[in-house]
Amino acid sequence: MAQLDTQAKLAILADAAKYDASCASSGTSNRDSRGGKGVGSSEGMGICHAYAPDGRCISLLKILLTNSCIFDCHYCINRKSSNVRRARFTAEEVVKLTLAFYKRNYIEGLFLSSGIIRSSNYTMEQLVEVARSLREDHDFRGYIHLKTIPDADPELVRQAGLHADRVSINVELPTAEGLTRLAPEKSERQIEGAMGSMKGAIVDAKDASKRFRSAPRFAPAGQSTQMIVGADSANDRDIVNRASQLYGRFDLRRVYYSAFSPIPDASAVLPLKRPPLMREHRLYQSDWLMRFYGFTPTEVGAAAEDNGMLPLDIDPKLAWALKFREQFPVDVNRASKEQLLRIPGLGTKAVSRILSSRRLRKLRLDDVGRLTVSIAKVRPFIVTADWRPTLLTDRADLHTMLRPKTEQLELFSAAA
Q1: DSSP conformation letters of 115-137
Q2: Does residue 264 contact residue 83 with C-beta atoms inside 8 Å?
Q3: Which domains does the chain have, with CATH numbers?
Q4: Which of these, 279, 286, 278, 206, lies nearest to 247 by C-alpha position?
Q5: Cα distance from N-terminal residue to C-terminal residue, the chain
Q6: Which residue among 229, 243, 324, 412 is least enclosed by CB atoms within 10 Å?
Q7: Nearest alpha carbon to residue 261 among 15, 10, 9, 14
Q8: Which of 171, 167, 257, 169 is nearest to 221 (CA)?
Q9: Are 263 and 82 in contact (CB under 8 A)?
Q10: What range(s) does the Elp3/MiaA/NifB-like radical SAM core domain occupy (predicted)?
Q11: Closest CA to 72 of 234, 152, 215, 181
């Protein structure tokens, strides 16, 4: 590997890290250095509040330790057989970069992953050393997210949890068949075993903290994972079911979805083009329905079309409502919270406001309009004191009426 300066390494390894979407920092414990002790903060403006246009968080220093790898996963641009420029940071260089970026107010934390070099244990040792040095040598109190390696020694993974706010282990692909086909050196059993061990360690640490004041914190922001969407034949229904299983079995904070991106010199087993980014967005909306709106995986799957794919032109909640019109209209003055959460166009905040407001008086249509973003989407599915949709809910062209209008954006319209 040619000798590169820090700036050249950063350009290569920051770009290589862009394919990992799971860098949010919610859920960690609050720490800061306002008392004159330590460096950094895990709260305040900048952390997990700045996003790129495609929705990815940009508030963390997000890099790989190295993009060299001994594995040859077909979908990965950093695979062993890939013809890309390689670079590698030392643990000390990552520590210095993190501190320098923080002191310039560029970041509020670190997201660190890596290709596998030499062995899984050696790579995991380097990742842990970065977090250890930041915490112990520099009293860094900002956010740290470490990607752990499933087949690394459990003690190394445990040390990662002692220094990091969040740890994550990527399941990579939605199905075992896809993983075997596209990443034969990885094992679903091994990945899930590591996730199960991490879950147990987090639960034990929480229990210890309740009983002992001096108990060390352990991954207070929990663990997350990521699935690549569109690299294999899994449809949206498969992905939703898999995500639900992961939440239930491993108490994950988040499952992230990353649309597959075609890579140079790609293997013949990969698709030739990436899936639409809207598919990734619909999966995140489905994830929200299960986590915050009380939908089951089966109900979300029922919103999909016959091929198992969620419609791209409307959101999953509206797709479900159009398929199950017998559930509507819903009387906003009498319905339960669970029924209100299923109305297209009503979010959790709007439902809370409706529940509070109707204690004071009967709600009219214009009242609901003031409590939500768009009354047009809501009208066909609700009954108020002065409104009943009559035949509107059953109209054959309701899908077309509620589908967002397609607009051609103008590049220089803002300049006028």
Answers
A1: ---S-HHHHHHHHHHHHHIIIII
A2: yes
A3: 6-224 (3.20.20), 324-402 (1.10.150)
A4: 286
A5: 51
A6: 412
A7: 15
A8: 167
A9: yes
A10: 59-286
A11: 181
Q: Smallest Cα–Cα separation from 245: which of 290, 215, 201, 277?
A: 290
189 CA to centre of own chain: 22
Distance CA 1, CA 205 (A): 41
Q: Among 353, 282, 274, 271, which residue's Cα sits nearest to residue 313?
A: 282
Residue entry with tokens 């394919």: 19
Cα-Cα-Cα-Cα dihedral sign, residues 328, 334, 339, 341: positive
Residues 383 and 330: beta-carbon distance below 8 Å: yes
Beta bridge partners of 111: 62, 145
Per the CB < 8 A criterion, the answer to whether 280 and 258 are in contact is: yes
Residue 153 is encoded by which pair of tokens? 């020694």
Q: What is the rounded distance in angstroms from the CA atom of residue 296 to the CA atom of residue 384?
A: 28
pTM for this predicted structure: 0.85
Render each residue's pLDDT in the chain as its tens digit; 416 residues: 557 888 888 888 888 877 776 555 444 455 455 555 555 444 433 233 334 334 444 478 889 999 999 998 888 888 888 888 899 999 999 999 999 988 888 888 899 999 999 999 999 999 999 999 999 999 998 889 999 998 899 999 999 999 999 999 999 999 999 999 999 889 999 999 999 999 999 999 999 988 888 888 899 989 999 999 998 999 999 999 999 999 999 999 999 999 888 777 667 778 878 889 999 999 999 999 999 999 999 999 999 999 999 999 999 999 999 999 999 999 999 999 999 999 999 999 999 999 999 999 999 999 999 988 889 999 999 999 999 998 888 888 899 888 887 666 565 555 44
Nearest one of 293, 299, 323, 188 to 240, comparing CA atoms:
299
The string of DSSP letters for 142-195 reads: SEEEEE--TTS-HHHHHHHHHH-SEEE---BSSSHHHHHHH-TT--HHHHHHHH
Closest Cα to residue 298, out of 284, 314, 286, 288? 286
Give the Cβ contact number of residue 377 at 10 Å. Answer: 21
Cα-based distances in Å from 299 to 189, 256, 320, 327: 28, 20, 8, 13
Residue 339: count of CB within 10 angstroms of its CB: 16
User: What's the residue count for the chain?
Assistant: 416
Locate tokens 């003690």: which residue?
155
C-alpha–C-alpha distance, residues 78 and 71, integer Å: 9
- Phi/psi of residue 228, each to 5°? -85, 130
